[in-house]
Write the structure tokens for this entry.
Amino acid sequence: MGLTLENFLPYRMSRLSEALSAEIRPVYKDAFGLNRPEWRVLAALADLGPSTATALGNHSAQHKTKVSRAVRALELRRWIRREAVVADRRSEIISMTDTGQRAYCDLVAPMREREARILDRIAPADRAALERALLALEAATGVAAG
Amino acid sequence: MGLTLENFLPYRMSRLSEALSAEIRPVYKDAFGLNRPEWRVLAALADLGPSTATALGNHSAQHKTKVSRAVRALELRRWIRREAVVADRRSEIISMTDTGQRAYCDLVAPMREREARILDRIAPADRAALERALLALEAATGVAAG
DNA sequence: ACGATTTGGTTGCATATGTGACTATTGATT
DNA sequence: AATCAATAGTCACATATGCAACCAAATCGT
């Protein structure tokens, strides 16, 4: 009759997500003083190249207020810069500064390393199952890439 | 050189977890006025039967401050009750009231239904991969059940 | 038996987040 | 061109969360 939290998919995913997040957080937070929205905006910017805040939000799955605050913080830090768009004066193009580029590069290596550290604890066959499961869930929840 | 957010495991898990959470949140939040910690404490209590706050926190993967606040809220609502423990006067045994029991039962059905709605969008073979992946990740991150 | 340590739980405070309202601008309709 | 709707982004406010300090009771070491 009960639900058994342990077997409830949303709970399991949330707990795992939390565990993974805890594994990588020290890198961007303790070592670089970023919070998660800031880290994500930076990563999105690296993925996309110069883009608008809206595009960064879509790519990093974050609400526009989170993006807005993250952009301001990164701008104050001089890791990113904005420039007006002549065609549309509502939006601004955001791009990384050289300092930001360097910081991002320094950030990526340990991030990858943490991810690898987790994946290394999983047998290859299970890793394949994981990739398959992720794709299936992404399709099922409609978060599919853009 | 970049990281490609789309392929970064912690990001993918976080985004999926968020999507699943959004799918079930309306049930406990809009329909019952609970927040997530409260819902989890209730579910943990149903799983474990009368328990201490610490046990509920362990079972629901929540920090003790979250549990403390959730317990107070549920108590004010008269869905749970506390009783002193003679053997150890620091802790209290928390248990569901009849009202809480009924509410929990009303909650479980739609929760299951939402979960099923998601799983139904996944092919059986992919569901098997999902279960395998979850077990592997749970082992790899040490969140294994208690 | 007594001080030091640990454990169960709560509280205060700083920070993070979600929501809705708001400004400015653009695009669509007529 | 005048209006209406949609879009980009910011802001203010209420709520949620994490962290450290804290209290009280139990346990440990001597």
Observations:
- The first helix of chain B runs from residue 9 to 31.
- The mean pLDDT of chain B is 96.
